[in-house]
Design goal:
Elements lengths: L3 H4 L14 H8 L5 E7 L17 H16 L6 E5 L2 H12 L5 E5 L21 H18 L11 E7 L1 H11 L17 E6 L5 E8 L12
Parallel strand pairs: 1-4, 2-3, 2-4
Antiparallel strand pairs: 1-5, 5-6
Helix pairs in contact: 3-4
InterPro entries: His_Pase_superF_clade-1, His_PPase_superfam, Mito_Ser/Thr_phosphatase
GO molecular function, one term: protein serine/threonine phosphatase activity
Main location: mitochondrion
């Protein structure tokens, strides 16, 4: 619902001519800026933790977050905000990254929490969550996509650069949806811990994938996918 034509009240007529001033109204609804979306997968964490609060970053995970934060800072971009999953591993990753980006506001959200977005096709034998998870998590992750991944608002004058720190399943699903690929194929992609995925959303709504799961800035012995 960000296509200009969808934002115009077609019933509203010009009082003098009785005709819609369509061109003028469309002009006010067209986006002018480009959005740059940086999707960061959280760093390595303690897999033995029974509850979310126990699944804290490992020492290596903290190193990975430092490397990711340094890489983002070296890009020299003016980041507008960091939106992150409310899960412990994503929150801790965000705290470390934010040290390299002083002044950038942080926003926590439950929408970006890890989950089962949609049943993968082809199916896999090593990961089979309960069917109810797809209904519960899937609706939430789809809501995250619709809420965060869209063209710029018509009022936005300058290009924006936003960071989202979340989880592999969420990022892979978002990439498929943003590129209009079958979302069932999300599990065919693999993302390293602390990796950077860069989406570009143009004013006309076109989306391009600049990088997917980049960890080329990390030494080989620091790269993990757990």
């Amino acid at each position: 619902r960000r296509e200009p034509l969808a934002l115009v009240n077609m019933k509203k007529k010009n009082e003098e001519t009785g005709e819609e001033e369509l061109a003028s109204r469309l002009g006010h609804c067209k986006a002018k800026a480009t959005r740059h979306i940086f999707l960061i997968r959280h760093s390595q964490y303690n897999l033995d933790g029974r509850a979310d609060k126990d699944r804290t970053l490992t020492p290596l995970g903290r190193e990975q977050a430092e490397l990711t934060g340094h890489r983002l800072a070296m890009l020299g971009l003016k980041f507008d905000q960091i939106i992150h999953s409310s899960m412990t591993r994503a929150t801790e990753t965000t705290e470390i990254i934010s040290k390299h980006l002083p002044g950038v506001k942080k926003i926590s959200t439950d929408l970006l929490r890890e989950g089962a977005p949609i049943e993968p096709d082809p199916p896999v034998s090593h990961w089979k969550p309960e069917a109810v998870q797809y209904y519960e998590d899937g609706a939430r992750i789809e809501a995250a996509f619709r809420n965060f991944i869209h063209r710029a608002d018509a009022k936005q004058e300058e290009d924006s650069y936003e960071i989202f720190v979340c989880h592999a399943n969420v990022i892979r699903y978002i990439v498929c949806r943003a590129l209009q690929f079958p979302p069932e194929g999300w599990l065919r992609m693999s993302l390293n811990n602390g990796s950077i995925t860069h989406l570009v959303i143009r004013p006309n709504g076109r989306v391009a994938l600049r990088t997917l799961g980049d960890t080329g800035f990390m030494p080989p012995d620091k790269i993990t996918r757990t």
